[in-house]
Fold:
Amino acid sequence: MTYFEQKYLTLLEKGCSCDEASLEVIDAYLAGKPLKSNKQKKVNKDNLFWSSKVIWDFSTEVLTSNAFVLALSRYFSQNNTTNFNLLKQITKNSPSSVCKGLRHSEVVLRPVSDKWAEIKKLGETVPGSLSKLIKVCECFQLAHKQRLDLLAQYQKPFEKLSIFELLSYSSLYAFKGFVEPNISLDGEVICITAKFNALTKIVEWKISNSDPASFKLTDRVIAESLKLHLSPILFPSSDSPIIAETLIFQFSELIQAQVELNEFLSRSVVPFCFDDEESYFLNGNQLDRTVLDNVVNQEWELNGEKLNLLEGYWLNRGLKDFIKSGMAEQKIGSKDYHELNQTAYIKALGSALQLSEIYGVDKTVSTDNGMNVEVFQALLSLELMLAFYNKDYTEVFFREYENTGQWQGALTMLAMGGLLDTNNNEFQNRFPITWLNWKQKAKNIVGWTVSDVFPKGNLKAAESILDFWSLDFKRWSNELQNSNRLKLPELTERPIFKIGNYSVQLPWMMACQLTNVNAINNLRRFANSRAELKSETSRIEERLGESFRKRGFTVLDSYMPPSCESMNPGEIDLICKLDDFVLVIEVKSTYRRSSKREAIGYKNHALRKAGLQIKRKTDAVKHLLLTDNQFKSSIGIGEGSHCTAIGWIADTCMEFDHECFNDFLKVSVEELHIALNDDANLLMDMTELRGDDKNDREVDSLYQNGFSAESFVDVIENSKIWESLLEKRTE
Structure:
């Protein structure tokens, strides 16, 4: 008897119905049960589940449930087990579930896998809707292959170039695109985000196929590269080789092919796989689709607008701290850079507040190489770099373009300006790609580490800042080659590239940074094995609990209720009681996702699991309120008093904001803090912060009749901090 069969029988003995027991078994499978014991080397959980006889008896209601569709998607995602006869029966009884599971598994992108062969055999054995879906999938597979083939064709000219040379052409392409819009294969202007995404995938391809020796960079190697690739563009002459002009054109083709593939995946494949409101069908030999409801895209756009308002909120918070500290009265740097440096300082303050209050980040964190870096200094350094590259590169480029009318001429004048600038008897690198010895780069930013402890700055601190923001291409090349699942961080998230002993940067990319997002994803996504991560997660809960306490709530954090045979909810992150309300909060901490595919994966796994967890924990609290006077006393409830228990999922990310999971509301940690602080008036987009908005918001309270638990619940459940945004969208 398998683990799942035993669990099913146990649930029946406890009085569960067949359907309830079946759904519990499916949830256990989706949660990764059974856990491996110390004596077991490996547990094939997929085989244990799909070989369980109980699945043969699942009712139609269970087979059509969202949980079972997710289980089917997992079946089609793996190749280590198969049960063709069982799948044949499921297809006969619930073909729609099999079709959904197939789509959600993304097996459409794996036409040479064993599972795809099994699916085709299944379609032949049980003809009908599955057969039609297979034909649609085959059209997707053909379109995917065509785009992969085109990309491979355009990669060929760059196979023998070094990563430094590839990045050089990316910068030439980007600067040209500032004044002559880069056009995609379908005739659309390629936006800056699409360029970032495309370049990340191109660099990932390049370093995944590079040997360690190719990352050795020296002054001589750089000089030879410049002579062949950059000098003919920046300083053209009659005998300049034409290879550079040719490669610029070929790089634009490479970007077009990568953008075409990326857009095909995000605009067509992802909706096909995950959006049940979009239906694809064959119209002759062409794929067509019908959109029943555009709610998925609308919600994604709404979350983006909320994030924009939050960016303004933290900048406003930074501005308030900046003024309070007295820094507004001080000169920061030279006269030419004073205002830019002020803005950099304010943005860094706001980002530091966000990392501390929402993500539990301490004043110092460890880097990939085990160095300790001060978070504020790291944030400030990147903001100062952003200001520098904006002023000394992009602004100069646009000014020179106005004078010359040519992008190449503008780049020439930009580079010449650096060569003619003899400050400190050294030429200033104003090339479209910059490079500097790693140690010298650290020395150059020592001035940004000045503090009360180190009034002249600190070299170790500067080195740790570089380490925090750096992407070591040689190291990542090795890791990518040894892992099929690992993906390169977005280049914007770690914009200082380490190639050998050199620091390499792209001025056009440095001028387009979101420092807070970069820091969040550095710490929560790619540095998620740091020793301090656990304490950060605890501080997220503690700081949210403290915000509740300041509003008069009685708070229990990390509460472990007594378990019994019928109830084992596990640790409850926060229990907050005020008036006649008890809030039970499950806190989730994660990073900022940039694609719908990533977000959907998070929804189907982490948020779905959170919905199950908060139900168990809320039920446990309700039980304690009825049976445990000691518990009631600990949160200030007297005998005979009645309280309403409400469960919420509080998440550090905005994806699927204000949606319900297992009938429990999911809200952002930021929204809870803002509602408790009653400072939603600081939620402003950047045009408002510059004073361009004629309708400046007044400092209105969310609680016109005073704060209470009931009014707070009303503010959260009815999205009142987003009220003005929601009103604009309905106009």
